[in-house]
Design brief:
The complex is a heterodimer of chains A (274) and B (156). With 274 residues, chain A is an alpha/beta fold. Chain A has 2 domains: 7-96, Translation factors (Elongation Factor Tu (Ef-tu), domain 3, Beta Barrel), CATH 2.40.30.10; 103-269, Rossmann fold (3-Layer(aba) Sandwich), CATH 3.40.50.80. Chain A has 7 helices and 15 strands. Chain A has helices at residues 76-83, 119-131, 154-162, 187-192, 208-220, 253-256, 262-269, and strands at residues 7-16, 21-28, 42-47, 51-59, 66-72, 89-96, 109-115, 139-145, 167-172, 182-183, 200-205, 228-231, 247-248, 251-252, 259-261. Chain A has a 7-stranded mixed β-sheet, with helices on both faces. By secondary structure, chain B is an alpha+beta fold. Chain B has a single domain (4-145), classed as Jelly Rolls (Sandwich). Chain B contains 4 helices and 8 strands, in the order H-H-E-E-E-E-E-E-E-E-H-H. Chain B has helices at 4-10, 19-26, 109-118, 120-145, and strands spanning 29-34, 39-41, 49-55, 58-64, 68-75, 80-81, 95-98, 102-108. In chain B, the strands form 2 sheets. In chain B, strands 1-8-3-6 form a 4-stranded antiparallel β-sheet. In chain B, strands 2-7-4-5 form a 4-stranded antiparallel β-sheet, with no helix packed on it. In chain B, strand 4 (58-64) and strand 5 (68-75) form a beta hairpin. The longest helix of chain B has 26 residues, at 120-145. The termini of chain B are far apart. The chains are: A alpha/beta (274), B alpha+beta (156). Chain A binds chain B through residues 51-56, 71-72, 74-78, 115-118, 120, 144-146, 150, 173, 175, 179-185, 187-188, 192, 206-210, 213, 233, and chain B through 57, 59, 70-74, 76, 78, 99, 139-140, 143-144, 146-156.
Chain lengths: 274, 156
């Protein structure tokens, strides 16, 4: 499989998540599917006549050649993607990058910290934690958003909250009428979450500043930086570590990341200009 | 039945205080339960108390014209509510309302101020406790000022 040429997919269905984010289910055309994904990896989605963007995989279907991506409409390509109707053609290069250390977390507590659209790349992790629940210790999913209507996967969050399998805590910056939940920043949830800091793996994704504060809060709880993993976002173009657009110090985020250990990038995240 | 002093010992917010300070503070404290929807304090009123939340959740609110009471943040067990009792003009800057049955230790602000004036070591240690809460909430407020979630990922 060549990763420098897009494979033809079509939009099978689409679902609105928030006022500007949609989840697209893509199906391969003529059976030419990209290789299987791991949670945390990303695709380069090519919209003909518009351009190509990196988008994290947001679910890994059990079978078939489908891909699920949640996209926020913030630029020309993502606006076109979000407007794509069933049947629309999309080119896919994938999968790229290093994913979440789910296997390495077996036997340990797991804390998932997500902010805004950052839940999308962590959603397949949560699916896997629930599917193989007996292999992990305590599991906490901490999710923060700008407002209740900006939270992704609301039905699914309700399902997760109804199960006893995992602890799910939600918090928003700006409550709307009828919101009965917590108000504040997602890092606040870390202080109260139930986990053993000495035996926990944390996975965080969201705006970079949020991840920095989340990593600090996890360390204040006693976690080692080597147990904290973040998904970084940089301007991925080639996705194969050649063009340098996504370079962060010595790292190419497209191939050394997007999921990286916090102690490897802490100093880089604090370096102006990087 | 636990005494106020024993309950203060269990409060994570006061864990850094020496036992003798907690014993002194206990003399200014009483237990109270607020029912869902009941105000713990009202914006603009005299700030003569502060609260250690033992159970339940509290919404810190302000009145916004046309929108009514807007929740600024929610507080949970183990957290401190109210510090306007510490500095003039001793008026509540915000209101607070019980979201469910809220069990608190209420500490009388004037009583505590008097004890702090007479015992500067207590005053300094208590100020450090309150300053820790200040700093944390200021950090969180600054994070929220950034409007972190606005178009941060997948910007292509």
């Amino acid at each position: 499989m060549r990763v420098d040429q897009p494979v033809a997919y079509r939009v099978a269905d689409r679902r609105r998540e928030t006022h500007d984010a949609w989840t697209l289910r893509l199906e391969a055309v003529d059976g030419n599917a990209v290789p299987p994904f791991s949670p945390g990896q990303f695709s380069m989605l090519y919209v003909f006549g518009s351009g190509e963007v990196p988008i994290s995989i947001s679910a890994i279907p059990e079978a078939g050649a489908a891909l699920v991506h949640t996209v926020r409409a913030v630029g020309a390509v993502t606006r076109t993607l979000c407007a794509a109707q069933p049947g629309a053609a999309v080119g896919v290069r994938a999968p790229f990058g290093r994913g979440w250390p789910v296997a390495a977390a077996e036997g340990r507590d797991v804390v998932v910290v997500a902010g805004g659209l950052g839940l999308a790349p962590l959603r397949p992790v949560v699916h896997e934690l629930i599917a193989r629940r007996d292999r992990f210790g305590r599991v906490a999913v901490l999710y923060g958003g700008r407002s209740p209507s900006d939270l992704l996967y609301r039905d699914e969050l309700d399902e997760w909250r109804r199960t006893d399998a995992i602890d799910v805590e939600l918090i928003v910056d700006a409550p709307e009428e009828g919101w009965q939940g917590k108000v504040g920043v997602v890092t606040k949830l870390i202080r109260r979450a139930s986990f053993d800091p000495a035996n926990t793996v944390a996975m965080a994704c969201g705006p970079e500043v949020m991840m920095r504060f989340a990593a600090t809060a996890l360390r204040e709880r006693g976690m080692a930086p080597s147990d904290v993993w973040l998904s970084l976002e940089r301007s991925m173009k080639c996705a194969t570590g050649h063009c340098g657009h996504c370079q962060l110090g010595p790292l190419f985020i497209c191939k050394d990341g997007p999921v990286v250990r916090h102690d490897r990038v802490e100093h880089l995240m604090r370096t102006p200009g990087l | 039945m636990q005494t106020i002093e024993q309950l203060l010992e269990e409060s994570p917010a006061l864990a850094s205080l020496p036992p003798e300070h907690r014993a002194t503070m206990a003399g200014c404290g009483r237990l109270h339960v607020f029912y869902p929807g009941e105000p713990l304090m009202r914006e603009g009123d005299a700030a003569d108390e502060f609260f250690l939340i033992r159970r339940g959740a509290v919404a810190v609110e302000t009145q916004v014209p046309g929108r009514g009471a807007v929740t600024l943040e929610t507080l949970e067990p183990g957290e401190i509510l109210g510090w306007s009792w510490l500095v003039p003009p001793y008026r509540n800057a915000f209101g607070a309302r019980a979201l469910d049955a809220v069990h608190v230790i209420v500490l009388d602000g004037a009583c505590l101020r008097g004890k702090c004036e007479r015992d500067p070591a207590l005053g300094f240690d208590l100020l450090k406790v309150i300053a820790t809460v200040f700093v944390r909430r200021l950090e969180e407020t600054r994070m929220r000022l950034l409007d972190l979630y606005a178009g941060a990922r997948d910007a292509g």
